[in-house]
């Protein structure tokens, strides 16, 4: 249940990014759901491999190369998926950064409220 809720929050974050940035377009909530699912799979399966392969560059740039990897993967998802479009590399970097921020904030807000009510020690 928690995984489905996070998926919905990520789709909402993606819609927010598309609303804020002019270089990113999402056709609707269904397209946002599919894009959030594919972005989650890309970040789970491909991103760690790319980070491992580019580890020397990442160390030399003090971790800033991970922004490039995130932007490229976001741009790649936009070029593969129908209904989700990223206009270029810099839009991909900005979109990946904002998507990460919005997704984290939404997840933190929602699950912080739920965890504080469940972990209340008062009778």
Task: Describe the protein's architecture and organization.
The structure is a single chain. The chain has helices at 2-20, 29-45, 47-53, 55-60, 65-80, 89-118; strands at 24-26, 84-86. The radius of gyration is 16 Å and the shape is globular. The mean pLDDT is 91. 77% of the residues lie in helices and 5% in strands. It has one domain.
Q: Secondary structure elements and their pairing?
A:
Elements: H1 2-20, E1 24-26, H2 29-45, H3 47-53, H4 55-60, H5 65-80, E2 84-86, H6 89-118
Antiparallel strand pairs: 1-2
List the main descriptive attributes of the protein structure presented here.
mainly alpha, single chain, 123 residues
What is the number of strand segments?
A: 2
Count of individual domains: 1
From the spread of the alpha carbons, the general shape counts as: globular
Average pLDDT number: 91
Distance between the termini: 27 Å
Give me the strand/helix succession.
HEHHHHEH
Tell me the radius of gyration. Answer: 16 Å
The proportion of strand residues reads under 5%
Question: What structural category arises from helix and sheet content?
Answer: mainly alpha
Strands in their spatial order, largest beta sheet? 1-2
Q: Percentage of helical residues?
A: over 70%
* DSSP helical segment count: 6
User: Poorly predicted ranges (pLDDT <50, ≥5 residues)?
Assistant: none
The biggest sheet amounts to: 2 strands, antiparallel
